[in-house]
Amino acid sequence: MAEFSTTIKEHDDVSIIYLKGYLDAHTTPVLENTFANLIEKEKYKIAVNFKDLAYISSAGLGVFMAFIEKIRDNKGDIKFTSMSDKVYNIFDLLGFPLLYEIFKSEEEAVNKFKENKKVED
Amino acid sequence: MKTKKQNFKERKLKVKSRTENLSAIRDFVFNAATEVGFNSDDIGNMILAVDEACTNIIKHAYKSYPDGEIIINLKYSEEKFTIEIIDYGNSFHPESVPDLDLQKYYKQRRVGGLGMFLMKTLMDEVKYVSVPGKYNQVLLSKNFNS
User: What's the CA gap between A96 and B142, in Å, rounded?
Assistant: First the structure.
């Protein structure tokens, strides 16, 4: 069976979720739980790092759609980083770059949250 | 592209309608498509399309009932590689699935439609045959020269 796991690293007030393995209809509950836990802790600034993600199906993409509204309603966002070309192509086909900011590096995604914070302050 | 190996003309996998079997289904298609000689982009597209088709069968045709049957037949000819997927769940009417509208999807958090859009985009041909009360068939084809 394909494996999937998430790890979280906190960077100031930004939570970075690292995805690892295969994200399909079987493994999406793992990612749903990760998001639900962050939201419960009122952590709404979330960067998702795809560096170690080998595979994603539309079930996996659906998880981001399921949580984004609640997160943005709370002045947060989900930003994506470090996607392989293969994974990016799937996001692109479905038009996700219109709805989500996608960055080459994790640093850029984290910095974007900081810039936004400065504007708010 | 041309075929490199011709180790098989047909191959079959039968699994229960459970999402835990999706990885075995992907491996099955990956191995066959690799043997036939597709490049890694085509193979990636095919395993995603077959995953989407089977996920839809598990969720919609069988409504997550875990003991339904899914049969995957792989066939190839000179021109194309075909993945035939058979299930015995509720019949499916592809025309009832609206075209993908991501903005609407975003606003309504409407689930579904993404998988079908991907299948049509990633494969050269997608065909549905539904015989109510008997079986549903999805045919996903990839041409060798596309």
Answer: 25
CA dihedral B118, B120, B121, B125 (to 10 degrees): 140
Test mutation, B16, B17, B18, B20, chain A, max A CBs within 10 A: B20
Q: Class assignment of domain A4-110?
A: alpha beta
Q: Is the pLDDT of residue B95 over 80?
A: no
What's the topology of domain B10-143? Heat Shock Protein 90 (3.30.565)
Q: Dump pLDDT digits (tens) for B32-58.
A: 999 999 999 999 999 999 999 999 999
Question: Quick one: closest CA in A to B43, which residue?
Answer: A86
Sheet (strand B80-87) strand order: B10-16, B69-76, B80-87, B135-143, B125-131
Q: What is the ipTM of this complex?
A: 0.92
Nearest to A58 among B22, B109, B115 (CB): B115
- Residue whose structure tokens are 């996903």: B140
What are the extents of the domains in chain A? 4-110
Q: Mean pLDDT over residues A13-30, rounded?
A: 97
pLDDT digits 0-9 by tens, A47-104 = 999 999 999 999 999 999 999 999 999 999 999 999 999 999 999 998 899 899 999 9
The whole-angstrom separation of Cα A81 and Cα A73 is 22
